[in-house]
Specification:
The protein has 394 residues and is α+β, with helices and mostly antiparallel strands. The protein has 13 helices and 11 strands. Helix 7 crosses helix 10.
């Protein structure tokens, strides 16, 4: 615990920076302070940062800390690109607190249960095989991100939702605009969101008339969600269902090429999710009552960001946390979140990533990185961390 004289100190926001390793070295400094610290977002908004594993889990589970962006003090990196309010996008349920959040989650949980994902495994395998087939048609070299890592989860979530094949490129392109903060403007992101919602609304209207064996049709049949609410849910699932998974796939392939002794290990998926923590700053929150976290009093109306990557690299919980070791028990990581907002689709993500690594390395055993690793470029500026490109050859 730091002394009372340092309580007013404001630390620089520990952004991921080009050329800097992950996790940012400053995360260890923050954890050593033994409590949340004050900081400011790049736009100047004051916030708290929680960095220790126990503090991050406390922030994610305390009912006095809200996920609703309509509450005062909620952290926002930009006018758009963060968590939308229900007025902006009805149905964006990760921005709701219980009990309203529970209404969405209860109707969606069966769609992502272990049993449901087991049913989808043949479709997941077909999608992965088709994407490997397409990769192998690239004359021995390709960008693994655009040619494979993005297309696999996009195809799978679109199949589960019932999105026509002809619309998938459109959804991918609009999603990329929405998750990039420095390369797109507020106006571009707003326009992309509106275009996406219009397409989704038309798709829902079609499913109302001609239902199929897909998630949208089944949710409509329950009558629990209004079509306008379902449109926000579908938009959220499309974005979450392919952006974070695509980043994990590409980073995981790169990491396994660096550590080939772990190819085929059962613990790879959870260790990749823990190690890279691509959604490091996604779980933004604000206190709606005064609450003590890790010895610090967060006042009502003060924003807080639990640093997922810092928690996942806390040596108090994970031995040699900055090492990649699928042999460890990493199931306690918070890469999928924690508490009532824990990732709804984690069973699907695990199934996809398991299938990808098993199939890709079996079918392309000579896969290698086709450029010096110092030339690789990363998404330091987006809401989700990842590789911009991964040139490979075989």
């Amino acid at each position: 615990m730091i002394g009372q004289e340092a309580e007013g100190e404001v630390v620089e926001f520990p952004a991921r920076l080009p050329g800097q390793p992950f996790p940012p070295p400053r995360y260890a400094d923050l954890r050593e302070r033994g409590c949340p610290v004050r900081s400011r977002l790049p736009n100047g908004q004051p916030i708290w940062l929680a960095s220790r594993y126990e503090d991050v889990r406390a922030v994610l589970t305390d009912p006095r800390i809200s996920a609703n962006p309509a509450n005062p003090g909620f952290p926002q990196f930009a006018a758009t690109g963060g968590v939308p309010t229900q007025e902006q996008i009805p149905g964006w349920f990760v921005g709701l607190d219980p009990p309203e959040h529970d209404r969405y989650r209860k109707v969606l949980i069966p769609e992502f249960s272990v049993r449901r994902i087991r049913k989808w495994r043949p479709a997941i395998q077909r999608a992965v095989d088709e994407c490997v087939d397409a990769l192998l048609e690239c004359d021995g070299h390709a960008d693994l991100v655009s040619a494979f890592a993005v297309t696999v989860p996009s195809r799978i979530i679109a199949t589960i939702l019932g999105v026509p094949q002809s619309d998938r490129a459109f959804y991918e392109s609009r999603t990329q605009i929405l998750v990039s903060l420095s390369e797109t403007t507020d106006e571009q992101r707003t326009d992309a969101a509106q275009q996406l919602l219009r397409h989704i609304n038309r798709l829902i209207a079609i499913k109302q008339k001609w239902p199929g064996d897909d998630l949208i049709s089944r949710i409509l049949a329950t009558g629990v969600l209004k079509p306008q609410e379902l449109s926000g849910v579908v938009m959220l699932l499309l974005i979450a269902g392919h952006e974070t998974t695509a980043s994990n796939i590409a980073l995981g392939v790169l990491t396994l090429l660096r550590n080939p002794e772990w190819i085929g290990d059962d613990g790879v998926v959870d260790e990749v999710v823990r190690f890279h923590s691509v959604g490091d700053i996604l779980a933004m929150r604000t206190a709606i009552e005064d609450v003590e976290i890790g010895g610090r009093m967060l006042r009502a109306g003060e924003g807080v960001i639990p640093l997922i990557g810092s928690a996942n690299h806390d040596a108090a919980v994970f031995e040699d946390p900055d090492g990649f070791c699928p042999g460890r028990s990493a199931r306690g990581h918070v890469g999928f979140g924690y508490g009532v907002h824990q990732c709804l689709g984690q069973n699907l993500v695990r199934a996809e990533m398991e299938c990808v690594y098993r199939t890709l390395f079996a079918r392309v055993p000579t896969l290698r990185v086709a450029c010096p690793e110092e030339d690789l470029t990363y998404k330091y500026d987006g809401t989700v961390f990842g590789l911009r490109a991964l040139p490979v050859a075989w």
